[in-house]
Amino acid sequence: MTTMLIRRRVPAVLAAAALAVSLGALAPQASADDGDGPFGPACASVPKEGAGSFDGMAQDPVATAASNNPALSTLVAAVQQAGLVDTLNDAKDITVFAPTNDAFAKIPKADLDKVLADKATLTKILTYHVVGEPVQKADLADGSFKTLEGGTLTTSGSGDAYEVNDTAAIVCGNVKTSNATVYIIDTVLMPQ
Q1: Taking phi first (over 0 means left), then psi (-120 to 50 degrees means alpha), and beta for anything else, what does residue 93 get?
Q2: What is the reported pLDDT for 14?
Q3: Residue 165 — left, alpha, or beta (φ > 0 → left; ψ -120 to 50 → alpha)?
Q4: Which of 27-31, 112-116, 184-188 has the lowest mean pLDDT?
Q5: Window from 5-19, 44-58, 106-120, 174-188 with minimum mean pLDDT
Q6: HEC per residue, 150-190
Q7: Which residues are 152's β-sheet partners?
């Protein structure tokens, strides 16, 4: 009797296992689109290995990680000029909206030089790009965040297309460093 019962259950168990495996193959797989990894068109230009890669940046605090990304060299110079390297590197669980070199190039050179020479104004602008808490991709759809400068910035969008303050596009987002989440943007944000 026991042998007959086992013979009946084995095919049922195998059928259930086969069904589970086939359903698993049909289930959506985790990807960067799920919010876990970097997203955006500029992410394709990030090196695959080394200090400037996503894995390399995850090992360093945010100002150091940014210094390893050639597209952020103007931002890094501005952060150094304002004396904010240690402030950013020592912060915990922050979010940085990091303008690219091309974003800074949109500002007329005379205006940019004037801001770079004025430490108080430069600090105000740079700290407006920093939120004192982690911002996840899911938070970007309709977000409002207080910045270290004291102002508020807003985000909107869906999928892999998000904007900050309706003026700056996120070109590579959800980049992790050892102490921050970075969203690389194509326009410098100006506080009110």
Answers
A1: left
A2: 33
A3: left
A4: 27-31
A5: 5-19
A6: CCEEEEEEECCEEEECCCEEEEEEEEECCCEEEEEECCCCC
A7: 146
Q: Can you tell me the distance from the alpha carbon of 79 to that of 91, in angstroms, rounded to the nearest whole number?
A: 14
- 22 falls in which pLDDT band (50, 70, 90)? very low
Tell me: the pLDDT tens digits for 159-169?
999 999 999 99
Angle at 103 between CA 124 and CA 185, to 5 degrees: 80
Task: Check if the beta carbon of residue 133 is closer than 8 Å to that of residue 94.
Answer: yes
Which domains, ranges and CATH numbers included, belong to the chain? 32-185 (2.30.180.10)
User: Residue 150 burial (CB < 10 Å; 0-12/13-18/19+)?
Assistant: exposed
CA distances from 45 to 52, 67, 144 (A): 10, 16, 29
